[in-house]
Fold this protein.
Amino acid sequence: MGLHLPNLSRAFPVPKYLRPSGLGLDISDRSLKFAELFSKEGHLELGAFGSKIIPDGVISSGEVKDKGALTRLLEGDLGEFKEHEIILSLPEEKAFVGLVTLPLMPSENIHEALELQLEEHVPLSAKEAIFDYELIPSAEAKDHLDAVLVAFPRNLVEDYRDAVKAAGLKPFVFEMETQALVRSILPKGEEETVMVVDFGRTRTSFAIVSGGILRFTSTVSVAGEALDQALSKAFNVDVFAAEELKKNKGFFRTKENQEIFDALLPVVSAIRDEVVRHLLFWQDHALHVHRPKPDVSKLYLCGGDSNLKGLGEYLSYDLKLPVQRANPWVNISSFEKYIPTITANESLSYATALGLALRSARTS
């Protein structure tokens, strides 16, 4: 059974007509990325994909500040997709994720029950929020229901919706970006408790997934661009030259690479410290996991800056945990019948867009 995560589809119901394949649209403060998957001879292949830099001031900390500018960007780059359903990511840093315990009740009553007690779990009223939930299956919990609640400010969701609709596109469903990312990189049937670290340009997100269900998320501002800034300062070069140094030399503690290692170490150490902090938090709060091994057993690295050579080895040695670079194609293609027209490194920055597209992809 594949991953099934909350997707806010109750707030934006599925249209009752035959839909074309969905286009995954991942929007962040600095860029938008899109990806399309289509069926061919019983397997999925990558269709259109691309990215665009978003100018400063259009989106800040996940909030749309200039809807007109965002709409113009979408019109210019996605005009050919006006007949596609758009599966759009919502920024993790604006989400409220929590565990809610409910008495046993029919499934049709759960949404209303959560709505009545929403303010006990998130700092939003029912009128101010759009929310969804995922029930946590458990053979042990016979006298109650456990649900993972995901909520967003209504005005934030509507700002993204309005910008997409104004561009002539059809918003179909909205998902927290971490949900789409997990769908993309976690193999189907992954039952262990794992941590996902999304090391991006402007922020790093952390997620705990147990039994295929997203349980916890968090975002910090320590991110990949700090690596370039550190090298730029240490070697007195511009950030473009610093980025080339980072790509070519990596994060290895060798005699020849010592200066680069030393320059990058404070940023990498800050990421490691955040991983440790989140692991300790999970150990203290892993309630209602109902699993024989609730401790995190593995760490998945993804995001564009997870391509830093040597990063996974350093974290694995320091954390005493297996660290695996994520494979965004693990649930899309085995590469036996099809090899995507995109590099493995580039794929990591498209993991969320691919996860969004995978949500509606069909192989038949």
Observations:
- The CA atoms of residues 328 and 342 lie 11 Å apart.
- Residues 258-285 form the longest helix (28 residues).
